[in-house]
Design a protein that fits this description.
Layout lengths: L6 H22 L5 H21 L3 H36 L11 H14 L4 H20 L4 H20 L6 H23 L5 H20 L6 H29 L15 H15 L6 H9 L7 H26 L16
Helix pairs in contact: 1-2, 1-4, 2-3, 5-7, 6-8, 7-8, 7-12, 8-9, 8-12, 9-10, 9-11, 10-12
Length: 349
């Protein structure tokens, strides 16, 4: 319901799907391992599924999705046998004679596409330069704002938001129109601040939870949700936030060091705590293990078609909040354990 009646969005989704399919198809053809070939071949099909969704062919997209999953699973299972056959075939039937190279315009285009595909069309470099770096710079710029001042601003904005919901009918229309934009922008700024945080992981975790509360305020201004719906939206996120904070508090009590400036590898000693934190993070993001999944759908269905600022801030927030949460998990629990007494994998191994 968020975009199915917006022709421009459907055209954009179709273009993204076609572009994804074409680029992934070229990348697939130059991969040197069978598993990466299968992975990029699956990406090609996902691009086609995007096109089907853009055309409104939802049932076909579901069938395509399931069929692709079964096919790729089967290919992964039989890939060792296929490789064995190909090696056997090459050993007994290899023809060393190579075709003559003709320096034509088509050959130049073919070589250019080959090089681009080997380099995966420089997508990683472009994403880093034009997407991650600018937003990370914004997050780093926000690190200069003191925690005390940030807390005061957030409390004031939260109070304004609650008052606006309670006294909705007595507030001028232009104020109620601008508040969702203010709250959604605050959501994005909090997430970017957590995204660039290099200090205490608990601080970043609390900023992410606060950002979800502001997103709730931003969209509740458009909707007349009952108490049951609000509790669904808050319940899953709150439970996940409490569980995740308890895990971080436990790790801090053990070692007094959960700074995000390096990888700690705590899952080596505390695998259960690491798993619980991962589940908490997925729950906070709306993964279908908590009511947050339903709550996000409820919120998105109440964004107005012409609230372009809210749409942009909400979309960017949901992209970066996933990275921010998984960044906390990876920095605290993943990587080589920092204690030198534990075994490490050397380059030779």
């Amino acid at each position: 319901p968020f975009w199915e009646n917006m022709t421009g969005i459907r055209i954009a989704i179709g273009i993204v799907g076609i572009t994804t399919g074409v680029i992934a198809a070229y990348i697939t053809r130059v991969q040197s391992t069978v598993k990466t070939q299968i992975a990029y071949a699956s990406v090609v099909q996902i691009g086609l599924i995007f096109v089907e969704i853009a055309l409104g062919l939802h049932v076909l997209a579901l069938v395509h999705f399931s069929a692709n999953a079964f096919l790729r699973t089967w290919q992964l299972l039989v890939s060792p046998s296929v490789l064995s056959y190909l090696v056997h075939n090459q050993f007994y039937h290899f023809d060393p004679s190579a075709p003559k190279k003709v320096n034509t315009g088509f050959r130049k285009i073919s070589n250019s596409l080959y090089i681009l595909s080997v380099k995966e069309w420089n997508l990683d470099a472009m994403l880093f330069r034009y997407l991650w770096s600018p937003f990370k710079e914004i997050g780093r710029g926000l690190q200069g704002v003191s925690t005390k001042l940030t807390s005061v601003i957030l409390i004031v904005l939260m109070g304004i938001g609650v008052y606006a919901l309670v006294a909705k009918n007595s507030i001028p229309v232009f104020v109620t129109d601008i508040l969702p934009l203010v709250f959604s922008a605050t959501t994005l700024l909090l997430i970017l601040k957590a995204f660039a945080e290099r200090g205490d992981a608990r601080k970043a975790w609390l900023m992410i939870f606060a950002s979800q509360l502001f997103m709730l305020l931003a969209i509740l201004g458009n909707a007349d949700l009952g108490l049951k719906e609000i509790l669904i939206c808050l319940g899953g996120a709150s439970l996940s936030a409490i569980m995740g904070y308890a895990c971080l508090e436990r790790m801090h009590a053990i070692d007094s060091d959960i700074l995000l400036d390096k990888f700690h590898g705590y899952t080596f000693e505390q695998p259960v705590t690491g798993f619980i934190f991962l589940v908490s993070g997925l729950g906070l993001l709306g993964f279908p293990v908590t009511p947050t999944f339903i709550g996000i759908d409820l919120l998105f269905s109440h964004i107005g078609l012409k609230q372009y600022g809210l749409i942009v801030f909400a979309a960017l927030s949901f992209v970066f909040v996933e990275i921010a949460v998984l960044r906390i998990y990876s920095r605290v629990f993943m990587g080589q354990h920092k204690k030198p007494s534990h075994a490490i994998a050397y380059r030779s191994s």
